[in-house]
Amino acid sequence: xxxxxxxxxxxxxxxxxxxxxxxxxxxxxxxxxxxxxxxxxxxxxxxxxxxxxxxxxxxxxxxxxxxxxxxxxxxxxxxxxxxxxxxxxxxxxxxxxxxxxxxxxxxxxxxxxxxxxxxxxxxxxxxxxxxxxxxxxxxxxxxxxxxxxxxxxxxxxxxxxxxxxxxxxxxxxxxxxxxxxxxxxxxxxxxxxxxxxxxxxxxxxxxxxxxxxxxxxxxxxxxxxxxxxxxxxxxxxxxxxxxxxxxxxxxxxxxxxxxxxxxxxxx
Length: 267
What we know:
By secondary structure, the chain is mainly alpha-helical. The protein has one domain (3-258). Helix content is 62%, strand content 7%. Strands 3-5-4 form a 3-stranded mixed beta sheet, sandwiched between helices. It is globular, with a radius of gyration of 20 Å.
């Protein structure tokens, strides 16, 4: 078998594996996706990762900030549909770290770093970040990424069995990263932005503050990785998408306020 035919066969196997990504399930925004793992398995993985993070990074000793973060988290979780709200025992930790970051893991584990509170300067902006992170959980993004990785490993394993050269495997790896996995991750980030925008509005937070949040993020960021090579959309692209969805989010806010949702979390 020639190098060219090896390359062609390996490519075919990898593409066939990746094609499965469009065949198994749908995200909340109706994007086709694959999720190979059970809810229980992903929740266990999330709980284990959360436990490890808490061992490696101390919780904040700022009691007032901790209460503030808990308050925002409570409102965001309360706005979830009942099935998603009750499937987990939701938990949040404020970590003593200057990172400007937050996360949510399968199993209902939320982490916020103290550094984020210097950029997300009010309850609405903090809710935008938390709702975005919870959006990843609602859309099964961790499951999806784990599933992608498993399928990718299968594809490369088969390519190696077929005798693909190291040069071919490296080319496939670069092509897969640039052509599939990085854009796919940016898609997940955009999806979480839009899910989060709706969720924060349903919780009674001002959705237009999500724009202000990204303005703050852009002002506080250093030199950025080019968007083509980044797993995250640029701040300007995120803000454009959020603005396009803002009228619908404002209607969600009106309905939430009519139900009596008026968060008052004080830092």
